[in-house]
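Quick one:
INPUT:
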C-alpha cells in the first residue's frame, strides 16, 4: 500500500508542475521566438543571404571570424547597416584536434589565457572594421572545452564573462525562456534541410512557448554546410504570417527581452 500511495503522490505532483515556458509572455502575444544564426562569415552570407533576408524584413545573427570577414568587408558593412546582429566566432576558430584540419590549432593545446586573447582579438577586429561591439558568441564547432585529459576544463565561464550569450551547435531542443543558461544556448542545425524538415521544430517550439535558434553556414541552394535559400524563403513567409504566432528576431534581441522579463 505504501508503494501505491507514493506512486499516486508522485503522479499527482508531476501533474501539478506547471509548463513554465507556455506561460511566458512573448511580445505582441506571439507564441514563440525564432532566431536565425550563421557562422564563419562565409561569403555567400552577404552576397546572397542578407539580400534575401532584407527582402522579408528579417534580421539574423552572424558570427564572424576576422580573416573571413575582411574578405567581404563592404558586404558586412551593408549587413550592419541593414540591422543584422554581428557576433564573435573567435579569431582562429579552434576546434578539437580530433579533426585533422584543426590539429595545428587544437583546443586541447589552449589555455584559458590563450582562449581569452583569441576571442578579445576578434572583438577588437569587429569593432575596428564594422563599428559595432559583439555581444554574442558562437562556440567554434560547438565545443566548449580547452585542454586535454586531466587538464580539460570548460571555457563557458569565459564566455559568460565577456558576452550576453554563447550558442552551441547541433543541439536537440529549443531553449526554454524560463530555464536557460545564456552562456550555452542551444542551436539546431538548418544546413541541408528543407522547410518540411524544419517545420516540426517550429511546431514543437510554438506548442511549448520556447525559443528556437537555428544555425547554419553557407547560404545558397546546394553544397556542404549550406542553408538552402529556398528553405529560408518558405520559413520567412511562414514566420511573417501573423496567424502563426512567431516572433523572429536576432539572438541578442531575444535574450535581452527574456532578461527584462
Amino acid at each position: 500500500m505504501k508503494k501505491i500511495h507514493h506512486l499516486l503522490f508522485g503522479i499527482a505532483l508531476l501533474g501539478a508542475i506547471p509548463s513554465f515556458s507556455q506561460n511566458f509572455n512573448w511580445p505582441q502575444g506571439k507564441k514563440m521566438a525564432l532566431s536565425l544564426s550563421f557562422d564563419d562569415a562565409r561569403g555567400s552570407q552577404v552576397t546572397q543571404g542578407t539580400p534575401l533576408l532584407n527582402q522579408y524584413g528579417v534580421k539574423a545573427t552572424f558570427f564572424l571570424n576576422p580573416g573571413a570577414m575582411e574578405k567581404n568587408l563592404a558586404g558586412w558593412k551593408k549587413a550592419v547597416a541593414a540591422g543584422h546582429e554581428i557576433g564573435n566566432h573567435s579569431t582562429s576558430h579552434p576546434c578539437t584536434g580530433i579533426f585533422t584540419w584543426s590539429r595545428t590549432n587544437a583546443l586541447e593545446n589552449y589555455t584559458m589565457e590563450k582562449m581569452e586573447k583569441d576571442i578579445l582579438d576578434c572583438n577588437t577586429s569587429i569593432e575596428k572594421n564594422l563599428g559595432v561591439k559583439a555581444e554574442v558568441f558562437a562556440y567554434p564547432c560547438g565545443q566548449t572545452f580547452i585542454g586535454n585529459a586531466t587538464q580539460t576544463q570548460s571555457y563557458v565561464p569565459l564566455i559568460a564573462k565577456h558576452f550576453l550569450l554563447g550558442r552551441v551547435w547541433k543541439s536537440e531542443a529549443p531553449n526554454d525562456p524560463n530555464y536557460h543558461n545564456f552562456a550555452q544556448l542551444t542551436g539546431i542545425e538548418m544546413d541541408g534541410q528543407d522547410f518540411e524538415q524544419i517545420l516540426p521544430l517550429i511546431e514543437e517550439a510554438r506548442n511549448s512557448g520556447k525559443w528556437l535558434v537555428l544555425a547554419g553556414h553557407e547560404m545558397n541552394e546546394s553544397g556542404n554546410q549550406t542553408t538552402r535559400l529556398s528553405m529560408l524563403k518558405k520559413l520567412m513567409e511562414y514566420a511573417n504570417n501573423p496567424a502563426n504566432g512567431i516572433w523572429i528576431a536576432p539572438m541578442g534581441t531575444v535574450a535581452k527581452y527574456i532578461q527584462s522579463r
